[in-house]
Design brief:
295 residues, alpha/beta, three-stranded parallel sheet
């Protein structure tokens, strides 16, 4: 068994990122497996090495140590190129000019972002220029059983549509890089926020084109701000830089364990203390609102 945590080094981790990391670590470690760290730095415009270094310092401070890695996606371009050629040889790729979809392609698609721009054909830009590379999607229904949210069904043609696998500037799309890396790194379980439930369908679809085995998925409720919006790096009061000034690592872990219903009282604890308590059946399905303390 092998799980992974795969953050993008585009800013400081926030409490939602730590929640995902903690439950991923607990899920795989409670099964006697290994936890891998992969830095998803495929967006050259936003990824910074000092953010990657900070992520690793924060994980160590929290007691979430990894067994393998860190791996950097920016160093794996030759591997992605090889797998892109497999799709090209199958006749599944075509040039496209989906400008907005192209910008989103290097990031994990969130539920707040509509999928329709990925399905729209756009005309070539005036004056020509390089095109992005899109994958032609067939009329396929993908079904999988999430370990937490149960059976999921995705209509690839109507719900997802064609999607970009490489930007015109050469940057690799999130879906292609993630599918290839998870398979080649031997990942058997992916744990992440429920906003990526549908994205698992894309990844299963793409993985089957490559002949990769399916892995298990377990999605989490989202941590939300006072407005009910998913926590993001814009919620500065919830990033670890701010939280470390007010709370110890054990207090943060204890609060997240309380959110996950692994403990009955919000009290400090270490990740290893939670291993005998971890159970997916305890974790709530509904999103969790995090009240920001007023100073």
């Amino acid at each position: 068994m092998k799980g992974r945590f795969a953050p993008s080094p585009t800013g400081r981790m926030h409490l939602g990122n730590v929640f995902s990391a903690l439950l991923s670590w607990l899920s795989i470690k409670s099964q006697g497996g290994e936890w891998l760290l992969r830095i998803e730095d495929i967006d050259p415009q936003r990824s910074k090495q000092h953010y990657a270094d900070q992520i690793m310092r924060d994980l160590e401070w929290l007691g979430l140590t990894w067994d393998e890695g860190p791996y950097y996606q920016s160093e794996r371009s030759d591997i992605y190129e090889e797998h892109l050629s497999i799709l090209r040889n199958k006749g599944l790729l075509y040039p496209s000019y989906k400008t907005r979809a192209e910008r989103l392609a290097v990031s994990a698609p969130q539920s707040s972002l509509p999928s329709s721009p990925l399905m729209e054909w756009e005309q070539p830009l005036k004056g020509g220029g390089a095109a992005a590379t899109s994958l032609r999607v067939s009329d396929t229904i993908i079904t999988y059983t999430d370990r937490h949210y149960g059976k999921q069904t995705i209509d690839m043609k109507n719900d997802i549509g064609d999607f970009i696998v490489r930007r015109r500037d050469g940057a690799w799309a999130y879906q292609l890089a993630v599918v290839v890396d998870d398979a080649l790194m031997g990942i058997t379980e992916v744990v992440r926020g429920r906003d990526l439930l549908q994205s698992a369908g894309q990844q299963i679809y793409l993985g089957e084109l490559f002949g990769f085995p399916r892995m298990e998925y377990a999605h989490l409720p989202l941590l939300c701000n006072e407005a009910g919006q998913r926590l993001s790096k814009r919620d500065k009061s919830m990033d670890l830089g701010q939280l470390q000034q007010r709370f110890s690592a054990e207090e943060i872990i204890g609060t997240l364990a309380f959110f996950a219903h692994l403990i009955d009282k919000n009290e400090p604890c270490r990740p290893q203390d939670l291993l005998p308590l971890f159970d997916w059946n305890k974790v709530p399905l509904a999103d969790i609102k995090v009240e920001i303390e007023k100073s």
